[in-house]
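Task card 7
Instruction: Convert sequence to structure tokens.
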Amino acid sequence: MAKKDILAEALKTHFGFDTFKGNQKAIIENVLAGKDTFVLMPTGGGKSLCYQLPSLLMEGTAIVVSPLIALMKNQVDAMRNFSEEDGIAHFINSSLNKSAIEQVKSDIMSGRTKLLYVAPESLTKDENVDFLRQVNISFYAVDEAHCISEWGHDFRPEYRRIRPIISGIGKRPLIALTATATPKVQHDIQKNLGMIDATVFKSSFNRPNLYYEIRQKDANIDKEIIKYIKANEGKSGIIYCLSRKKVEEFADILRANGIKALSYHAGMDSVTRSGNQDAFLMEQADVIVATIAFGMGIDKPDVRYVIHYDIPKSLEGYYQETGRSGRDGGEGQCIAFYAYKDLQKLEKFMQGKPVAEQEIGRQLLLETAAYAETAVCRRKVLLHYFGEEYLEENCGCCDNCLNPKKQVEAKDLLSAVLETVSALKEKFKTEYVVNILMGNETSEIQSFKHNELEVFGSGQDEDEKTWNAVIRQALIGGYLEKDIENYGLLKISKKGQAFMEKPVSFKIIKDNEFEEEEEETPVRGGGTCAVDPVLYSMMKDLRKKLSKRLEVPPFVIFQDLSLEAMATTYPVTLDELQNIPGVGAGKAKRYGQEFITLIKKHVEENEIERPEDLRVRTVANKSKLKVWIVQSIDRKVALDDIALTKGLEFNELLDEIEAIVYSGTRINIDYFLNDVMDEDHIQDIYEYFKDSETDGLEDAIEELGGDYTEEEIRLVRIKFLSEMAN
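Output:
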């Protein structure tokens, strides 16, 4: 029988498939021929089969190095489902006890086990290395191989030790697999695993069924996501957040709004975590809220949407995470919320790391920002990042292509950029080139005396955004190249040199605008969450009357943000009112009745349909942290000690306490204030808030800032609000 038939038959017998996908067959033949193999295949392309099928056809046991305990369990279960023999696949990792490990070893030695999954940490243990030296190994597979590279989105130092360890166990063929790798990462992987001569199989990174969209992230994000999930009821989705705390909070909010959601992150105990994963796989939950840092390794084909609550740290991470949707070729919506301040937060997290690591991290963040802000086809930008050219002008399946912006001629701008890169002898990055064009005299520019160059300040007529857009689109157009080995220095390509000699038309699309949110959000209109301006102004009048009658400043009753939310969702009962941000049960009881009466009358007179399904219900006790803070304050624990115990910065603790008093809970921090501040100072700040029209911090700092610190002002504002409003 021909070899082709044997493979096709084995595929049908073991996995029930009639045909191979993409490069699978050629990859499997290469592995069976005992050659080193490097596989670049997007999520959903069928990577696992490339080592699973050969392991069944070859003598001995294949060793698969994989970083995710969840993924191992998932894949071992899947292999056992395909076979009558439970011992056919096993894993060794930290979740197994001694007797379970003995069972695994006995199955391997008896020849029953064809596939053994090992975590890189377990591979380095002496007792495992000694055991594997006695095993007849068919080949090694390194899954998620991008973990080897510091430029990859999920770098793991222990992955760098795989090559010396497997060389010590015994030399056998090697297959490395990854679903995401830029050319730089690909080279890193091959070099580190000593497989520069491997046969490389690279599938296209284009996932035509995925729709990509970036939305402005603002105060209404929770409402927007809840509305989206409810419009896609019954469909499976994943929501990525940056921190474990946000994962827990947001999963709580989703559940409070009647959505079957579970959380998933590395800080949970493994029983709960795998229980939540199984519930998602078994469709007992519709939504998983997870941390970006934690790859879920879930092989669920029908995830219909992936939402990024926070923008990821790198485009590779973003590609990997969005790639978990629509793996069956069906619908896959990828929506990410972007605010520039999230990137600043991520940059802050990097402080304290080695300089080289910070530099790499910053480069990756800049690429992410460029992707978020660009108005060019998102597919084109993503694929260019992975070293692939996408030639279509309009993909028809991303927000930029569905709402195309006008192209503008930028021939002269590209000439200016290329001249500047050339004058700088191709030794600087985008940021530096833009500073030269804009005429910004940074200390670095002065030290190189580049402010004396003819090109310095030649681009002052355009803004920074435009120059960034020109450079990004010149990279995609092939006029410039980025030297990734050297932190992204800009080089002029052959095409760029030809352009300098004879410029041709070069059109660009200006970047999308993302406004920065202001501290005091004005009344927003537009979109689905438009504030009712008539009701808003009536409520402001009512608040003014109440403030006169009760002799408290208006903001003490309800903040502008709370009025805005009321004028959007029309609460007509006290229960509904206390779900409004910044209200809470105390305030609803104290001030709510007159507002509810006013809203009810307005709704009836104007026959307004209330968007009840859109009202975001907050979690009743909001969080255990807030309760714990209130109890600690009742026990007169010093605020800095409270912060220390919970691992919070002092200003983060003040954020939490402010949220507590704004929602109507009365607390007494006099014991702390009297300890850290003079009585006169407390009195001065207190009087300021008594006479002020606003509780805004910036106004207070402007008025009082010369004499008092921001922390002192915030502390007294907490005392004032608690005593006057609650």
